[in-house]
Design brief:
Layout lengths: L1 H9 L4 H9 L1 H18 L6 H13 L6 H9 L6 H13 L7 H8 L7 H14 L1 H7 L5 H11 L5 H16 L4 H4 L10 H4 L13 H5 L24 H12 L4 E4 L9 H16 L3 E6 L9 H13 L6 E4 L4 H13 L3 E4 L21 H12 L9 E4 L11 E6 L15 E4 L24 H15 L2 E2 L1 E2 L2 E6 L7 E7 L9 E7 L1 E5 L20 E3 L4 E10 L5 E10 L9 E2 L6 E8 L27 E9 L11 E4 L3 E5 L9 E7 L8
Parallel strand pairs: 1-2, 2-3, 8-20, 10-16, 14-17, 18-22
Antiparallel strand pairs: 4-5, 5-6, 6-7, 9-19, 10-13, 11-12, 14-15, 15-16, 18-19, 20-21, 21-22
Length: 682
């Protein structure tokens, strides 16, 4: 161990980095072999830090270890000298899994022997700046300098990126001069980066003016072509891989096929919406098909309602699965494959307890080298239910990408499976944990990281508002009604008022609502005592009624025995003749009685899972006021006949959607998001 540590530090690794590497048995073995290979060329002390960095990078990224010696030698012979060349080399060997490697093609693909002079870089940058000169002079330092970098690098593929950047900076400074105060001002953002995420049907527009479907079509996302799965990071190539991929192409005809593989153990969340959108969207945009594949391998947590809810959600987002399949469809085949792995010495029955297998530095199983025939007999006994839960597992002889040894492939669970029951395994179920590799489009391909991320709720809400502002017709709703009687109108007065569905674009349509002698306004739109800055209705201050063409003035305030204001008597006059009021408020007349549910943040803190913020755990941080139900809200008659999930903007209140709990007698509306806050308005 000490000798290996010294070997790793000799190539420039820090002692801490070297010790971390030693913990990963697979990486440690590959790096040791790579260094040994390089030392055969340069001697024990001839591997400098630059070469050592490339060797470490190669060993940590290379998945097909049979190419380790070839790449180590290429680095040692200084054919591969930069990270850019190494990336190209890794791509090349990934795309050419079969022997022999064509050295000439490899050298050409990796820029071996290519020398880029400073003069070439200067000329390339000069040409790019000349091309964009007019726009540069117009936008100055607000211009996207990355565009210049990208075009210069395209012209000189193997040039050092830092040298190109320095040349771009120098030539831009020469053209524009030093930055002014105006150059230092931040450029306003006019596009919402979550648009693609929100508009699940692909109508939203990105910063480049392309819809989601346009971006998912063609090669914009740089996915591998059908049948070229082996070119993806981490794909393991076996002697039979190319033959299987050839058969796959013959079967599919080269059609793009994706899948969305949820576990049916709960309700989908916003992250699933992203995955649905990209997997189904990518297939749809490229004339392919997408499967809904339930990963139903954990009968303890799966319920039929989750299967139904997942399918409903996929369809609600606008997609129809080509077919619906289940992991349990393959239980027989998975079992046969497991038996085959045991026969070939790649799997074994283990009796270590669950707690012993936790973490990454798990000691090697004492049963790892047990005879094959013994494992076959024990696995058959597992199938027949002759072991208790946790008494035996089937483990794969392999090292995971994260360095974990021998993952569990089968465990015993005496829980009937909702689809197979006890048909396959009696009396219990042996549940396969190992996930088969399939072509699933991941967020990393489109600039969304696969690591744990946090999306700020206010950013999501802002994007929801942008979408609903264009798609949700307006209606008027009063959540806390205050009765208003207009005394100078006749008792039986009634007229229709036309309200635009979208005030910013009245050509998109309108609807009518009744206007009568009695209307209802929000309690908060009236104050008996005038306060500084208050712009709505008071005994001294009139207010306009939106869309009605009237201004009302208070004549009498009526209170109940507790002193609470329960009714206002007012007079009205035409807004054309009256002095313009300081504000216009919404109202309803002869309304529908509806239930409205107002949702707030579920947790009190921003990071409820963080012990430093919430020491007692996230359950202690639940907001008890996260839901307010208003059972007798008043909504104008334009919403009558609305269907489940129809969306509306209740003017001055927020955006709402019709809940599935609605009945023919009473509509229920859920608030999706509030309107934009206006801090200057009281």
């Amino acid at each position: 161990m000490a000798d290996t540590l010294t070997l790793f530090t000799s190539i420039g690794l820090s002692e801490q980095k070297a010790k971390e590497t030693l913990k990963n048995e697979s990486l440690s073995s590959s790096l040791k072999e790579a260094i040994t290979q390089a030392q055969r060329v340069h001697g024990a002390s001839g591997v400098d830090k630059a070469m050592g960095t490339l060797l470490y990078s190669m060993a940590s990224r290379l998945k097909d270890t049979k190419r380790l010696a070839f790449l180590s030698e290429s680095i040692a012979q200084r054919k591969i000298c930069t990270e850019l060349q190494l990336a190209a080399a890794l791509d090349f060997v990934k795309g050419h899994p079969q022997d022999p490697i064509n050295q000439k093609e490899f050298d050409e693909a990796c820029g071996v022997g290519v020398v880029i002079t400073p003069e070439q870089i200067e000329e390339a940058v000069e040409a790019v700046i000349k091309k964009h000169k007019d726009q540069l002079l117009k936008e100055r330092y607000h211009f996207n300098m990355g565009l210049l970098m990208g075009e210069a690098r395209s012209a000189l593929k193997w040039a050092d990126g830092k040298v190109i950047k320095n040349e771009v900076d120098m030539q831009v400074l020469h053209l524009l001069g030093p930055k002014t105060e105006a150059d230092l001002e931040k450029k306003p953002k006019v596009k919402c980066f979550l648009k693609l995420f929100i508009d699940c049907l692909g109508d939203a527009v990105s910063g480049e003016g392309k819809s989601l479907m346009e971006q998912l079509r063609g090669e914009a996302l740089k996915f591998h072509k059908p049948g070229e799965n082996y070119t993806t990071e981490g794909y393991v190539v076996t002697p039979n891989t190319m033959n299987l991929l050839k058969k796959h192409l013959e079967f599919t005809g080269g059609q793009i096929r994706t899948r969305f593989p949820p576990e049916p153990n709960g309700i989908l969340h916003i992250g699933h919406a992203k995955a649905i959108n990209f997997n189904f969207g990518y297939a749809k945009a490229n004339n392919g098909i997408c499967f809904l594949r339930y990963d139903d391998t954990n009968p303890e947590k799966e319920e039929e309602k989750y299967f139904t809810a997942i399918k409903d959600m996929v369809e609600w987002l606008g997609y129809k699965p080509y077919a619906i399949t289940h992991a349990s469809d393959n239980f027989h085949q998975l079992y046969d494959l497991a038996v085959d792995l045991i026969r070939r010495g790649h799997a074994y029955v283990c009796h270590q307890k669950g707690e012993e297998l936790k973490g990454h530095n798990v000691p090697q199983s004492p049963w790892r080298d047990r005879p094959i025939e013994e494992s076959l007999v024990l696995f058959e006994r597992m199938k027949k239910g002759l072991f208790a839960e946790g008494e035996a597992t089937l483990r794969m002889k392999m090292v995971m990408e994260d360095g974990k040894m021998d993952p569990v492939a089968y465990r015993i669970k005496y829980t009937p499976h909702h689809r197979t029951g006890d048909e396959c395994f009696k009396p219990g179920v042996v549940s396969p944990i190992h996930k088969c590799r399939a072509y699933t489009v991941h967020m990393s391909q489109v600039g969304v990281t696969v690591s744990q991320t946090t999306t700020e709720p206010h950013l999501l809400e802002a994007c929801v508002r942008d979408v609903l502002n264009e798609t949700a017709p307006r209606a008027m709703a009063v959540l806390e009604p205050l009765k208003v009687t207009i005394t100078n109108l006749p008792e039986n007065f009634k007229t229709d008022v036309r309200v635009p569905d979208f005030p910013a674009d009245e050509a998109k349509g309108s609807h009518t609502v009744p206007f009568m002698r009695t209307v209802f306004i929000e309690q908060s739109d009236f104050r008996e005592v005038m306060e500084k800055g208050y712009k709505r209705l008071t005994p001294e201050q009139p207010v306009g009624l939106r869309h009605a063409g009237y201004v009302i003035s208070v004549q009498k305030v009526i209170k109940d025995t507790q002193g609470k204001v329960v009714e206002l008597e007012v007079t009205c006059c035409s807004s054309e003749t009256a002095e313009k009021p300081k504000a216009f408020i919404h109202w309803v007349s002869e309304p529908l009685v509806c239930e409205v549910r107002l949702y707030e943040r579920l947790f009190l803190h921003k990071h409820p899972e963080d012990p430093s913020e919430v020491p007692n755990g996230f359950l202690s941080d639940i907001n008890s006021n996260s839901l307010q139900v208003i059972s007798s809200a008043l909504v104008d008659t334009s919403v009558k006949g609305a269907k489940v999930f129809d969306k509306f903007q209740f003017e001055r209140v927020g955006y709402f959607s019709v809940d599935p709990d609605s009945t023919a007698d009473k509509l229920i509306f859920n608030r999706t998001v509030t309107l934009k806050e206006d801090p200057g308005k009281i």
